[in-house]
Amino acid sequence: MKRQLDRREFLTSGSRAGAGLVFAGAALAQADAPQPQPAPQPQPAGAPVRIGLVGYGKRGRSLISTLNALGPDVEIRAVCDVLPERVTEAQTALEGMGRPKPTGYAQGEEDFRRLCEQEDLDIVMNAAPWHWHVPICVAAMEAGKHTATEVPAAVTVEECWQLVDTAEKTGKHCVLLENCCYFRNAMMVLNMVRNGLLGEMLHAEAGYQHYRIANNVFDAEGNLLWCGEHEARRDGCLYPTHQVGPVGQWMNITRGDQFAYLVSMSSKSRGLNLFAAKHFGPEHPLATRQYALGDINTTLIRTENGLTITLYHDTQAPRPYDLIYRAQGTNGLYMGTLDKIFIEGRSQGDQWEDIAPYLEEYEHPLWKALQQNALGHGHGGGDYIMMYRLIKCLQAGIEPDSDVYDAVAWSVIAPLSEMSVADKSRPVDFPDFTRGKWRERQPLGIVEA
Ligand SMILES: NC(=O)c1ccc[n+]([C@@H]2O[C@H](COP(=O)([O-])OP(=O)(O)OC[C@H]3O[C@@H](n4cnc5c(N)ncnc54)[C@H](O)[C@@H]3O)[C@@H](O)[C@H]2O)c1
Hints:
The protein is α/β, with parallel strands linked by helices. The protein is 36% helix and 17% strand. The protein contains 17 helices and 15 strands. It has helices at 7-12, 19-24, 58-68, 84-96, 112-118, 133-142, 157-170, 184-194, 226-233, 241-250, 271-280, 285-288, 356-362, 365-374, 382-396, 404-411, 413-422; strands at residues 49-54, 74-80, 103-105, 123-126, 146-149, 174-176, 201-209, 259-266, 296-303, 308-314, 326-329, 332-335, 340-343, 353-354, 428-429. The strands form two sheets. It has a nine-stranded mixed beta sheet with strand order 14-13-12-11-7-10-9-8-15. Strand 11 and strand 12 (332-335) form a beta hairpin. The site of nicotinamide-adenine-dinucleotide has 24 residues, from helix 3.
């Protein structure tokens, strides 16, 4: 495979594994279009969706709990993890929920291939570390299964093309499990945009602003975790899909509009050294080493239709959690940080308005219908609504709310921003993963429960 990078090399060759490797993988040219396959068929009426899960860490546990809440609509048939004790833990947890014991796969880091090939499944979901997402998704689709991956879908431009090529060749769904698209305020904004409240869309601002060094970058014993390996060696907007997923749906990205180019800039990196010095001591190797990722990365995107987006990646400096979610059009704007709105002709003077009456008017139909079931599940209920929709779409044989083109359009911001940061914020063009289809593809509608 000409475009495939060795993912273990990325994680082990410290000096080369940052921008250099990403540049090496930046094959922006289009591949030959594989022949499209027939659309997936509905499942037999009432049949559960049969699922295999790869990766039973923090997120895998949460996904199992959300899936379990969908009752007889799902059957979790197989679980894979490199750590055998995690597979046993998953089996015990599912039995404790009154479910059959899933088959376990724990024979090394490529054992997901056996799961994909041997199990009778409709979909393989993965909550493994980032560098395994593409190998797992590709193995699943090539074994005739749909796939749904945790975020981001891919780490390099090369990997994005691999997902597109494989989804097109096999006709299987490749869905990003982007739960933020199902957040209550994000869906309310989608409903407002579809109903014209904000006017014509002009701009959005969103940020992954989440101080999350403990348990994500370092463990309590002073080791660098897999996520920390990325932060140590890469500089850019490394985790872009929570910010840009909802924005992409508001702006019809890959469905009438397309990201055209971005520029990206990072501040210096201080937070990881300061955190390590405070928790492990000033002489600890994690306190004295260099980290690539700047504490605050800012990325600007312009779309083909002239809309603009500001994205922040801000995870290393102490701060409250805030995804921002500003959506601005020709009539006014919603500002998620404040949870307030301004609409010309409706709001008084130049004052923000409380969102409550608007929420009543523009609550998304999925939230109206599912709120009681969703609340109490992860991320304010967004995890439940995401999983509910995916499972219902699979059962009905209809297109999920997002597809492989969305997954890669949102994920590729990470490697493209790395290129821009490494080259004095120069503009970097987005590849057209849809091969021109974005002009005809229909925007996501206001889907019902
Ligand atoms: N959508 C969200 O809100 C959200 C929240 C947290 C994490 N995530 C995503 O979920 C994924 C997992 O994150 P996490 O925090 O659970 O990480 P984690 O380290 O807690 O869990 C990862 C698990 O994958 C296993 N694993 C590693 N390599 C594997 C392989 N080759 N085959 C099978 N299993 C393998 C590990 O043993 C571990 O159990 C990441 O992509 C992350 O970005 C998403």
